[in-house]
Amino acid sequence: MSTAIPVIMKKKEHFDRGEDSRSQDFHEKIFELEADGEWIVQRVPDDHVLVPTKYGLEKKIPRGHLWHHKSCGQCGHIPGYSTSIFWVMRKLGYDYEDPRDQTSCTAWNYYASATSNSAAQAAVALRNFATAYASGFYPLIHCGTSYGHYKEVRAELLRHSELRAEVRRVLAKLDRPMVMPEEIVHYSEWFYAMRNEIRAHQVRDMKGIVVTVHPACHYYKLVEGDAIYDPDIYGGQRTAVVTALAEALGAEVRTYSTWFDCCGFGFRHILVQRDFTRSFATLRKIEVMKEEANPDVVLTHDTGCVTTLDKSQFAAQAHDRNVGVAVMSEAQFAALAMGAHPYKVCQLHWHSADYRPLLEKMGIDWEAAWAEFQEDIGRLERGELQYLTWEDTDA
Amino acid sequence: MPAPTATADLKVGDVAGYADIAFEEKQRIVSLVIDDPRFTDYLYGCYECGICVAACPSARFYDFSPRRIAQALARRDVRLVYQQIQEDIWECSQCFSCLRCPRGNNPGGLVTIMREVAVNNGLASAREALEGYSRIIYKIMSTGTQVSPDMLQPDAFPDWGPEVKDVSDNLALWRRALPPETLHTVSTGWDVSDQTLIELYLIWFETGALNMIGEVDKGLHMILEEVMQDRLEEAGIEI
Ligand code: SF4
Ligand code: SF4
Fold it and tell me: Which residues 79-118 of chain B have a CB within 8 Å of chain A?
């Protein structure tokens, strides 16, 4: 009988558990690889803010001189999102680069169709990082999925030397060096870090505006260790981005029970299986928020989440469901607080859910604002203007 | 009463509605999943606790479960994993809520690997899942931005409300009303430079990503290959 346990142990499935790297500091490894000549680490500029992350490590968020890694979904379908990020940065007086030598991260397609592989995804990421490095500006990632995916790419590159070798071979064909930024920074982290400067420029009172926050899955679930968590926000139990900014601007953030649920985007579902997306977005998110918190606006910080939560309400409304609430990014919300034009800057006419009651509550005469925007459109039509410029947004 | 083997779910010679294949071939396909370098980062056995299922959006609306994915792979259950590749994986939302797993598993990541294997081997489920999706693949691989303003057509998004028609009717004009200079485009998310496209095409060729398309959509593969080769040749690059 004394042999029973060893015999059972021998027959049992055995798993060699790798190191749990979720709470570890990855910096040591990226600098080690730099010392070994494997890649260049682009340093965060000296002018940065230190912020707390999930397991207590500090993260550096650069203030200015940023290379804007744009989001295809924001630029394509919600252009007031990207425009607001730029506008706020300009108002705070920070310089930036809006590059043409940037591609999408291509992760939307990867998570939808899997028609790519680790080496291709890593090469796309590092090519973008290499162009940012060449410009001398520091990358700031607009999309939550790009941010999460790039961190996933970083984790894979740190673990697998053969993947690094393959990516190095491909980038050599492009005549590009291997570059890894010291921190991968999402724009919502910049808004979190800059919230006091943003508040100092606030011209519209957000008191009485009720907000619910949808935290984006790819921001805080995917390679979670360097997402921002702040003990003063939700006791450090949920990510602090978006909420900390909304509170700093004086809005009332209310919670709801399905905050951890995703929005229903699904990557392929939003494009080819939208019945799932619509059902999930309305039944598990918007209706629960309406029932439990009755918000004036849903704020979130990712391309897919704004699109899904905004666009899914129309069909549900036709079925008399309890939906109908404005949806936007916290960047647009912050821009409105700083006095941005709702159409020239926030481009709210690209949104579907009715945002007008929210504007009225903020004291914005949206009819007058629309008339001003139409005047500019008339100038564009008559050829008096070729494009609306930054100067026109403040005219 | 029909014999048990004649009932729908016990049909012989059929997996998830597709013709069955030899066990050895299933073994080969499942080995490709297990041999992926990411596999050991994504699975450390499974408590079968179901925490991932509670967090999973797809489990709420489909007959789908991240726990079943993790369990079947942990047990190396070749038949079941093969069936999941043919039947389940395209229902996952790739949200990664299942990373809440107390064991440190990544069922969503396992799905990513299983999908890649399905595409690489031209499995019927992959071809079917990607039907109607070729326009998107064409856009991302050939232009460098996946989502473009001109995709906002009312007949493609009838459920998104009348604003889609407003955008589409005024598209070029409203794009000119965007202050950032890179956003005046209608067929790409932003203005992507020629050199950048060339570099992107080289990545698709060099990493084999372009060849993956050939397994699921030969027509699309031909078009993409031609577009990219022409552009690379113009730039004096031989593939
Ligand atoms: S990644 Fe897939 S399996 Fe995991 S929670 Fe999301 S939908 Fe479910
Ligand atoms: S949460 Fe993890 S351990 Fe629990 S059932 Fe899911 S995969 Fe298994």
Answer: 90, 93-97, 99-100, 104, 112, 115-116, 118
